[in-house]
Protein 1
Amino acid sequence: MSKKEILRIVDLHKSFGDNEVLKGISLSLKQGETKVVIGTSGTGKSTMLNNINMLIPPDKGHIYLEDVDVTTTHDISRIRQQIGFVFQDFGLFDHLTAKGNIMIGLTKVKKMKKSEAEELAMFELERVGLQDFADSYPAQLSGGQKQRVGIARALAMQPKLILFDEPTSALDPELIGEVLTVMRDLAREGMTMLIVTHEMGFAKSVSDEIIFMENGKIVEQGPPEQLFNNPREERTKEFLFKLNELYGEGGA
Amino acid sequence: MADFFQLFMDSFPALMDGLGVTIMLTVISIILGTVLGIFLSLGKVYGSKIVSGVITVFIELIRGTPLLAQLFILYFGLPPYGIRLPALAVALIGFTINSGCYQAEYLRGSIQSVSSGQIRAALSIGMTKWQGIRYIVLPQALRRVIPSWTNEFIYLLKYTSLAYIIGAPEMMTQAKFIASRNYEFFKVYLIVALIYLVIVLFFTQLFKWLENKVKIPGFEYIR
Ligand SMILES: Nc1ncnc2c1ncn2[C@@H]1O[C@H](COP(=O)(O)OP(=O)(O)O)[C@@H](O)[C@H]1O
Ligand SMILES: [Mg+2]
């Protein structure tokens, strides 16, 4: 294989008390790949993403970002700078403008000069189509705009990989498209992304692989055509059927 | 009315000296109290169980006992142990600790009202916990606590009059001194009360102005 491996997860386990949430998850992502994780609510998708950048440390297992084992590193801040995270609830800093939200990580974490940080922030805002909203505060933005700022903030750190945790689930239906468009562009530009979403249209057209999780395990993974048209597992079929009933064939 | 005005003019210079001390006591205690309050509230919210427990006990102890008793302990209770502090220092320490404990409680509320999503986001871009507190949590928490500074200031300004009991030369001390010479107790204390009122109104407006100045556009505070 020519492409470099960016992320490799090996046998991840996590319990909260006696609630065993992750029961041995393994997966990997090569440079430029986009993989979409699907599965019912409460199945451990968010927990897995939060394990990857150690916001929630796993109990057992290993996570490699290129060659570094994230679970044993002594400088987690360095690792987190290289893993973008886009949250369902945006996580924008309320007291900072769109531009300020992007700059603060550059100046305080990367110790970049203010003028450089500003230039990069404007570049990233333009990339998500928000150059005209640089001086707006989060409370002045729509949900879709907030999420695009969230993505721009992640991009500005120049991560090797971006994790998305249901980035459009908190959005009104008419605002979902603008966020998916940005994500689609990123995939096309070769960003490495691991995305939890239920936007099946998006998943089909953008992802290299779909990962179906249930009860803390990966039930099935494969290219979208295969997984959607020819699921091997009975559980996958049932889930896709339910999903169709809930959301329809739609999505962007 | 004419001699009330005369009395006002006569006692004004001495009262102004006292007022200077009163305002200095209030302003310094509120500033140092804020600094103390920040550390106490951070310790309470982010500290270990032990740290947070010790701070809670300390805060409850200070808030649960009369300020006057605290001043007496500092002023009369410490000298036998070889610690002799001037009245003004005692007043300053007492008011600072008091203000710090009350402010710690206000601040704790505002710190906890900054959404956990923002803290996770701060960590996710590589900030340390301390950077997240310094650059994300505190700037928002301090903005939210400004309205309670107004109350704090009013209480503290009036509480500083307690310092006269240990003889710190604040405004009440001066008033008592003037009145004990001319026996115009009612009028002198009326003048003092009016001066307090003017100061309170002035600072209330100042804090309102400050609150507006640092308001986050589009962000409606939930009170
Ligand atoms: N911080 C936590 N403490 C305790 N239980 C948690 C915590 N976070 C998640 N869980 C539990 O873990 C399970 C999986 O949650 P989550 O990873 O959020 O699922 P998903 O993202 O797939 O909906 C749920 O049962 C949830 O209640
Ligand atoms: Mg989730």
Note: The pocket of magnesium ion (ligand 2) is lined by residues A 45-46, 165-166 (CB under 6 Å).
Protein 2
Amino acid sequence: MNAIEIHNLNKTYTTGTKALDDMTFTVNAGDFFGLLGANGAGKTTLIGILTGLVRTTSGTASIFDHDIITDPVHAKMSIGVVPQEFNFNIFEKVIDVLVTQAGYFGVPRKKALAKAERLLRDLDIWEKHNVPSRTLSGGMKRRLMIARALMHEPALLILDEPTAGVDIEMRRSMWKYLRELNNTGTTILLTTHNLEEAEQLCKNLAIIKQGRIIQQGSVSSLLSALEKRVYIISTAKGDEEITISKGGDLYALLQTYHARNIVVSDIRPKENRLEQLYMSLQ
Amino acid sequence: MKLPHYLISLQSIVRTEIIRFTRIWSQTLLPPVITQSLYFIIFGGFIGSQISDIKGVSYMAFLVPGLIMMGVINGAFQNVVSSVFGAKFMHSIEELLVSPTPNWVILFGYTLGGVLRGLLVGIIIFGVSAVFVHPQINHPWIVLLFALLTSTIFALGGFLNGIFAKKFDDVAIFPIFVLTPLTYFGGVFYSIDLLPSFWQTISKLNPILYIVDGFRYGFYSIADVPIFSSVIALLIFIVILSVINLTLLKKGVGMKQ
Ligand SMILES: Nc1ncnc2c1ncn2[C@@H]1O[C@H](COP(=O)(O)OP(=O)(O)O)[C@@H](O)[C@H]1O
Ligand SMILES: [Mg+2]
């Protein structure tokens, strides 16, 4: 079963901005899927649509086979979302933020209190459970939102740039936590514009630019493609494309032409689409 | 989600609302006590002593139901409009919108929050009034019915205002320019019998007149207009406001992009 299935999804805001442009992709159950893209690429819009905060212009999306428009209750039950911006009530106590959110998902109060304690302890902010949420540090607020997303034990966790503005140590511990969560069966969709994060965490990736998926595949295949260089070599017989993996020896290659008495008149790197992408993401 | 889930969700919304308005009691519960006490002292005490009884009731006693209703109306309306706007402003409304909670539960929850604050304010003002005049309630059920219907209407009105509110000013416009004038002209301070017939006719276009009048009937068995038609009118208002709110919620107006 697919955790997420998106077909020809379009979103044009009332301002006229086309944020999603005919997007189609799927995320398998159990995957740790990364959505990589620069600011303004459309990541948050896509998450908004999946979670019911943004209306679609056209196209369909489903979560574990539940269409988000025709069966929103089941679709929403399966999702826990950690948004990009803080969006809890800053006057509420930490514990109330969690228990209230669980209540919205139908989790009884007693059960929610126990679950909240477990999550806050796991995420190392239990000592703050009784303070107003506005008094937490940035990293703690982020962890509060992760805990909140997990209160109803969703099968799919969606995180929108969860480590933006989080210090390195905290980032590593969050990565560890997410990896363990994924290992125990939770499907994860994570957006980031940080390649290291994508490489560290994700199994599969889609690179999104201006609302379109421009590249997708397993992290290893995308990365190996990134590390190859393609050269165009011109000889009397015409142009020839050759690929050299990173660390490969261009000089040794030219020697083989020489040995065959072929005169190389020009050699130039072919522009590497992925590398350009990679660069444009930084 | 099944019905028990919805009830848990409803409970969460209402609980959050109660925690909110009791936490900021100095902004929600204290002001009506102070203003209404001033009305009792100045209008009821200083001025009222110069005014003859209205339909056999002392002016101070005549004021009680109207002043309570003023508090109920404002309390219910303010609670919902500021809570909905606050949730939009902080984006915490998203916690509800990403959840499977259906729109009717959201509307019901916020409305109930407003009703509870309205009733609480009403009870407090009634308590204050007992300092000034011996309490008398001839028809408790009518008093309760009018308090419930009225707070429901204005809680729903507050929700509607909250949906459209984009900035803090938008929260205050309706209460200042519509609610307050209608309340003052709604027979809180006088019986419309005292007005020339032209102004009596104009006054009858004011919905708050029926509310205050019916409520006062519950206290002293005196009324300017028939109770039954007022109740029907209030029920119709509730249905209309609910339908409008639910339609807007379904469209995501003011909430979804
Ligand atoms: N509420 C909105 N109204 C109008 N345009 C928006 C809104 N939200 C986002 N956009 C625009 O849509 C595009 C995609 O934005 P977003 O989904 O936030 O991208 P990302 O999360 O990848 O940075 C951007 O051009 C952004 O300016
Ligand atoms: Mg974003």
Note: Residues 49 and 59 of chain B are 8 Å apart (CA to CA).
